[in-house]
Prior knowledge:
There is one protein chain. The chain has 11 helices and 10 strands. By secondary structure, it is α/β, with parallel strands linked by helices. The protein has a 5-stranded parallel sheet, sandwiched between helices. A 5-stranded mixed sheet has the order 6-7-10-8-9, sandwiched between helices. The N and C termini lie far apart (81 Å).
Amino acid sequence: MTGILVLAGTPIGDISDAPPRLAQELAGADVVAAEDTRRLRRLTQSLGVQVGGRVVSYFEGNEAARTPELVEALVGGARVVLVTDAGMPSVSDPGYRLVAAAVEKDIKVTAVPGPSAVLTALAMSGLPVDRFCFEGFLPRKAGERLSRLREVADERRTLVYFEAPHRLDDTLAAMAEAFGAGRRAAVCRELTKTYEEVKRGPLAELAAWAAEGVRGEITVVVEGAPEKAEQLDAAELVRRVQVREDAGERRKEAIAVVAAEAGLPKRDVFDAVVAAKNAARTGTS
């Protein structure tokens, strides 16, 4: 008989959130594959459980190489429990390769449901929860990050992202550029931990707040694109920017305000203004 792969969710902060079955699975496993064996040791000590089986590391750096070894154990009848540092394995964590390989071999895959930073942040954000999509981590390079954000600028569903604290201010600023400065969002920090904090507000304000420095595990929830009450053509966007410029506003600020009012990314309004300017120059030459 083949074995079984158990994806075991672990607490994202408060250890008392651990489901009772987690301790049972860790104690009864033939193999425990852990993203960080030191964290696993702290977890089992907190739960008061002794791992009876073999413990192996399974992280991003060795995931591809170790998967065949674990599949071999599963084919041989082992009960393999996979845990990551926090939350559910394979959700922006190691695990997908192992699950896919196990399914390929017709090995049973089950789970110990546990806390999820995605759902916890979504529920606490105060933003619509009826429809959402999880986008994981954004690219680290600025250009690639902005390009990825622009791909979902018109997405109506609430968006959920993970982000590193040292990149948070740049990411929020890029979101403000791609989605509009006034788009609502929530930055959820250190969920279920001692210094838990949820900061809510428009993206531009959150970006300014994050520029002062933020620590901890971060989940960002962003409101979906608004339904456009009116479809403004390029000429109308340009006219509105011109009205504000004539009133003394700088073009950059005028574009930001018009974009927010129209529910459009600033880039769309900027492109319309530049196109109109080029057309006027060509027409007079």
